[in-house]
Amino acid sequence: MTISEKLQELKKRETKIKDMGGKTRLAKQHNKKKLSARERLELLFDAGTFHEIDMHVKHRSTNFNMPSTEIAADGVVTGHGRVNGRHVVAYAQDFTSLGGSLGEQHAAKITKVMDMALKAGIPIVGMNDSGGARVDEGIDSLKGYGDIFFRNSRASGVIPQISLIMGPCAGGAVYSPAMTDFILMVKNTAHMFITGPQVIKTVTGEETTFEELGGAITHNTKSGNAHFACESDEDAIDHVKMLLSYIPNNNMEDPPLMQIGDDPARKCPELDGIIPDNPKAGYDMKDVIRAIVDHGEFFEIHELYAENAVIGMARLNGRSVGIIANQPLVLSGCLDINASDKISRFIRFCDAFNLPLITFVDVPGYLPGQEQEWNGIIRHGAKLLWSYSEATVPKLNVTTRKSYGGAYIAMSSRHLGNDMSFAWPSAEIAVMGAKGSVNVVSSYRKAQKAATDPESKRQEQIKDYEQKFNTPYIAAERGYIDAVIQPSETRQRLIDALEIMSTKKEALPAKKHGNIPV
Length: 518
Fold this sequence. Notes:
- The protein is an alpha/beta fold.
- It is built from 20 helices and 17 strands.
């Protein structure tokens, strides 16, 4: 065979593989408003930068009719390229090729690029669209999943791992995305569950649908398994690009520094009047965040889950930061089980990848109730204390209004290693609110009993307590608050603090790892 004939043979083989499952199956994929695996990768990577590897890999199963079954690229496209100029590794399962089912060689392709990403210190993006384990290959499929899970664990906290669910993802397949840093799901086409509706009906008698059981909205609002609910494949990929823009390639690098032209000395006069005079009235903490960060751009994460807590990424003077806040509009900003989990995991991600943490505090306490106690608020709440204490990145907080009791400690207080704490004049930092305090303090109760008008006396005591204790000044006198500041100056003070703490060095005691409450 001549060189020319060999080149033609290569082109012929590549063309056949790139046809994937064929035109009919590709049309079905498009009819479901789903892109093909290769189309998804083309959208993710900068034009002309994607380089595929292991295109010619084939399965080697001899079971059933597998020897005569051809699966283009063994059902998964793997490779590397650039996303906004930065190196990224990715894989995309091809549902048109035997349902994107995972067999021995399919898994080997994925683990190869996972190893590559870990060695190179660059992010990995996985696009999941698969019918699950390739039953024809038996236990080799299960071995493949185990190999992937092992690498998910080893890569965690070393390189960013991002999972997109763009079709079915069921059974053992769901555990790999669950072990990654972020999960993005596409509405109406993505489904993720351990057992499907038919099995559930057989075993428990419950009737449900794919969407109700494991759709994007379900996992973004109820289970908290997913961080984003995206409108389409294109929207999901845009979200990935935005997410990558805030984070470094690996845990040894700093996040990207992007000068985007927002004056670091800019004041935020709208914040001086944002706190209502009525302590029971709510306000949107996201308005506070957007007023302070560069150009008002706040990339919220887990937006639809545990909405009493707000997390996301932003920039201050071009520096990427992780934002955590209580949301007074939902449950008055109380901490509960789900909010504690949501915040804790985000803290640990930011700490692993060197993003400073900024916490905005308006919290009346942990949410009381029998269900919270029975479902483990103690251990889940302790997780929040643990995560802030463990984090060694710069930690700043701003108390805007309420900060009571154990929740005061939990929300990045000085006592958990916070580096700089600020409070607005509207801040109320105390063990509890005035109404609760006058019912508990013995001298107050005795005075009420002795009064001719106990209720009038109680109201008088409430005002007295508020003036003495529901202020930021006692905490400031103790040095627990570094400065009481004008709300309009918050942006300036945070940027200055970040600059000072940018060279922070802190080491944890030598240990294999801690035993975090779960």
